[in-house]
Amino acid sequence: MSDEQWFYCLKHNTVETKDGCRAADRLGPYPDRETAARALEIARERTEAEDRKDRRWAGGDDD
């Protein structure tokens, strides 16, 4: 397994290594290029899961 870290650049919509754009413009690090390429999908899934938790906590619907 490589120690290399991968990031998803929000500015350029590309996968890059640590030497890419500034941290404020990217998501990561991810363990491999393939996972970094799914960064937006992963973020959406995590946001949806947290939104469901918030609705349950607030006593609302869990649709």
Overview in brief:
The protein has 2 helices and 3 strands; from the N terminus they run E-E-E-H-H.
What would you say this structure looks like, in words?
- There is one protein chain.
- By secondary structure, this protein is α+β, with helices and mostly antiparallel strands.
- The chain has one domain (6-55).
- The protein contains two helices and three strands; from the N terminus they run E-E-E-H-H.
- The chain has helices at residues 33-37, 39-57, and strands at 6-9, 14-17, 26-30.
- It has a three-stranded antiparallel β-sheet with strand order 2-1-3.
- A hairpin with a 4-residue loop joins strand 1 (6-9) and strand 2.
- The longest helix is centred in the C-terminal third of the chain and has 19 residues, at 39-57.
- It is elongated, with a radius of gyration of 15 Å.
- The N and C termini lie far apart (40 Å).
Properties at a glance:
38% helix; 2 helices; 3-stranded antiparallel beta sheet; elongated; alpha+beta; 3 strands; 63 residues; 21% strand
Strand order of the largest sheet: 2-1-3
Query: Helical proportion?
Result: 25-40%
Number of helices, where a helix is a run of at least 4 consecutive DSSP H or I residues = 2
Beginning-to-end CA distance, first to last residue: 40 Å
Question: Which parts are unreliable, with pLDDT below 50 for 5 consecutive residues or more?
Answer: none
Element order: H for helix, E for strand: EEEHH
Strand content: 15-25%
Please state the overall shape, judged from the principal axes of the Cα atoms. elongated
- CA radius of gyration is 15 Å
Oligomeric category: single chain
The major β-sheet equals: 3 strands, antiparallel
Could you give the count of β-strands?
3
Number of domains: 1
The computed structural class is: alpha+beta
Average pLDDT metric? 93
Organism: Pseudonocardia ammonioxydans
Protein name: SPOR domain-containing protein
